[in-house]
Write a structure and sequence with these properties.
By secondary structure, the chain is mainly alpha-helical. It has five helices and no strands. Helix 4 runs antiparallel to helix 5.
């Protein structure tokens, strides 16, 4: 599996954040980056919807991504909050 594609479009590569956790080809650090990228995308879609834009399919809930990140890091990821209007965790 291509790490660049997984970082750019995790929602196209995985059905759930758990699939990222279970993937054997990526390192722990790569999995964290993929999940952070996915969280960013979900936040961007949420902001767009709040502004009345039609985004498309129902995205994965942010809580599932945060839970997966917590399993990898052992802590909540408050340093990598999105630069969007809804803010961080």
């Amino acid at each position: 599996m291509d790490i660049k594609q997984a970082l750019l479009h995790p929602e196209e590569m995985f059905l759930t954040p758990k699939e990222v956790l279970d993937h054997s080809e990526f390192t722990k650090e790569q999995k964290i980056e993929i999940l952070r990228s996915w969280a960013y995308e979900v936040n961007e879609c949420t902001a767009a919807e709040d502004e009345g834009m039609i985004v498309g399919d129902e995205p994965i809930h942010l809580d599932a991504i945060h839970d997966a990140l917590h399993k990898l890091t052992g802590t909540s990821d408050v340093e990598h909050g999105p630069p969007t209007k809804q803010g961080g965790i």
